[in-house]
Amino acid sequence: MIKLYVDAASNGKAIGIGYVLYKDKEQFPVSKGKKSRLNNHQAEFYAVCVALMDIKEQNLHEETLCLYSDSKVVVQALNRKSAKGEWQHPYLEQILPLLELYRLYFVEWFHQKDNQLPDQLAKRALIQYKE
User: Fold this and answer.
1) Is 4 within 8 Å of 19 (Cβ atoms)?
2) pLDDT at res. 115
3) How confident is the model over 63-113, as pLDDT tens digits?
4) How far, CA to CA in Å, does 35 sit from each of 61, 62, 74?
């Protein structure tokens, strides 16, 4: 089983994403940022998409994936496999096929206070892009 914890931060001018992949008792933290006007909800979807694209290259599809996010909007949309808002459609069109590559996957909400490392990674990436 692999576990993927994802978070994002946004300030209106840039976004930061942070994720941590746990595999075989090892921890792989990643922090990325870019200039962007995405709001925080959009940044959370973007973070999931980037994390899944990054780990796709590791050929872990035979594993069970547990994806954790502190964004209820993201978790609900992914578990429903449908968007409530029109703006969510492009994200779901990218994310759902990536999730379906896995033999089995779960998407769960994780309280922000328990998601500190991805949160710190996202904020660190965002700081790089402050003007």
Assistant:
1) yes
2) 67
3) 999 999 999 999 999 999 998 889 999 999 999 999 999 999 999 998 867
4) 31, 35, 21
What domains lie within the chain, and their CATH numbers? 2-127 (3.30.420.10)
* Structural contact between residues 8 and 16, judged by C-beta atoms closer than 8 angstroms: yes
| Residue 129: both structure tokens together | 């892009």
Residue 88: how many other CB atoms lie within 10 Å: 19
Mean pLDDT, rounded, of the chain: 93
Q: What angle do CA 124, 74, 31 make, to 5 degrees?
A: 20
pTM (two decimals): 0.92
Q: Are 12 and 76 in contact (CB under 8 A)?
A: no
Largest CA distance in the chain: 43
